[in-house]
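tokens incoming
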């Protein structure tokens, strides 16, 4: 729960309370127990909000958490004989995004959402 409360303090538009907070806190705790770091989850959850918000912040946080695999260890590549895990970064925004992602070459939720719109028009409407 502390991670979500800190996120809300840093970005007031991302603040959760009540049932949405407790529901998403349970998911975050499960991901932390599964091996995700606070920094990685914060990076995923702190992605910029869309300019036009059509859902509650609780729904946005839930959707972002739903896209996170249960544990990063199964998708991480070890680097060298020491077996240290190598992290992967989102290549979106012409390589400038850099948010942590589960596998090389995959984009974060924010960049995937941004790629769904061209000139402010949804690709599904084109």
């Amino acid at each position: 729960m502390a991670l979500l409360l800190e996120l809300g303090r840093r970005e007031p538009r991302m603040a959760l309370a009540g049932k949405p907070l407790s529901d998403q806190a349970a998911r975050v705790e499960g991901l932390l127990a599964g091996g995700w770091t606070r920094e990685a989850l914060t990076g995923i959850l702190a992605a910029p909000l869309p300019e036009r918000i059509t859902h509650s912040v609780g729904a946005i946080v839930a959707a972002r958490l739903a896209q996170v695999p249960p544990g990063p260890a199964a998708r991480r590549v070890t680097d060298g004989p020491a077996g240290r895990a190598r992290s992967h970064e989102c290549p979106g925004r012409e390589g400038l995004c850099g948010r942590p992602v589960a596998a090389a070459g995959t984009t974060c939720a924010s960049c995937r959402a941004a790629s769904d719109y061209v000139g402010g028009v949804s690709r599904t409407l084109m």
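note: Confidence is low (pLDDT under 50) at residues 74-84, 120-126.
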